[in-house]
Amino acid sequence: MSPLPRCASLLSLIILAPGVLAAIEALRQEDTLPTAAAFALDDACHAGNENSETGSCDLSLRQLRSVLAVDSQQLDEPTKNVTLTGTLGAALPLGHPSASKVYPKYPGFSLFLVEEFDAPLHLDGDPIWTWSDGGLKEGQVRFVKEQIKFQDGKMKIEVRKNHGSQQSCSNAQSEDVPHKPLVSGEIRTRFNMFRYGRYEVRMKAPMVQPHNPNVDGNFVSTMFVFRDASFKHWREIDVEVTGRAPGAISTNILTADYQAKWKPSMQETDYPISYQHMNVRAEFHDYAFEWLPGVIRWYVDGKVVREKRNDRLEVPDKSAKIMMNLWIYHDAKPFVPFGGKHLDNDRFPMQCEYDWFRFYKWDGDHHYPLADMSSKSLTEDDMYLTSNNPCDGIPQIGEVLKNGQKLKPCKATCR
């Protein structure tokens, strides 16, 4: 059955532009309609996509699918009043690229997703990104949406003292999390939808004390891919900048199945590495990794710093979420084993900054992700315990492995 009759009221919100009728006719041929969360909306004309006759943009088929799939009650007021823009068959990249930038090209890769952070992301309504309500067992922070800030053309993740209260249940962790003394933020993609490609970020790590980038402390500032919490397929590829030294950078891979707690045998890392020529807290640097079948290569400022192939741990081959966060290790006296030894030097609030993020899809991966970000590309295994927070609308399907038992995940309430 065509979805169009069900969406008549919502269509009245759209200002019809050239190309809409063609898009509607194309949709009449569709048997099913994917959810809006699985698609990315273009929010500006890309260079060369303007309609020369009207001076405006045509509405893309991808955008129309997304709008039709959303119940009108779920749209916020700003969205209801915006004219959708784009062209039929709108080109990549998704996200929020800049029309004034010329992006680098890499043989064998195609630019798929760009975030410039020039404007705030609506983390409860963005079709690609959302927030985490998690809290690492070994960390002092609970992740909350409010600690992800967009200012001055940057995304800023801030750690501060926790003067509030959070629900004990964490959807991201799939279980109850005890109260943490600090709050911070973690931005992540909604689904395990990304796999082989090149992941790039330009970021600046925190100063543990204001205006002094040479003071060592404790923090872990990240860009990484991650899957399934800890209860089925734990897969992780990391770039981690830490408070151990002004040039301290760690690159990690973790893989395990049905392992609820971290063990040394599930990780391979180059930690500790310190680059004496750079201060990661005083200036921005570019960090990247290329994830391909059987090999991962990490880059700092465009130079390869590590290559990992299948050996003791195999390179992951399952899809994952993209994540960026900032956290502080627990106070394990007399020695803090990760993030830096000088935890007592930390002063809050503490903030890391992200200038941009880019994902280049490997041309050889024909499954993850689909160009329209459709959830039809996802398997039941991809959706296992995949909810990120109680407001993301994603069902929490799966079981939590704990003390040898399989338990139902806890349930948090959207506030």
From TrEMBL:
Keywords: Signal. The keyword Electron transport does not apply. It comes from the Eukaryota. The keyword Translocase does not apply. GO terms for biological process: carbohydrate metabolic process. It holds the Pfam family Glyco_hydro_16. Belongs to the glycosyl hydrolase 16 family. This is GH16 domain-containing protein.
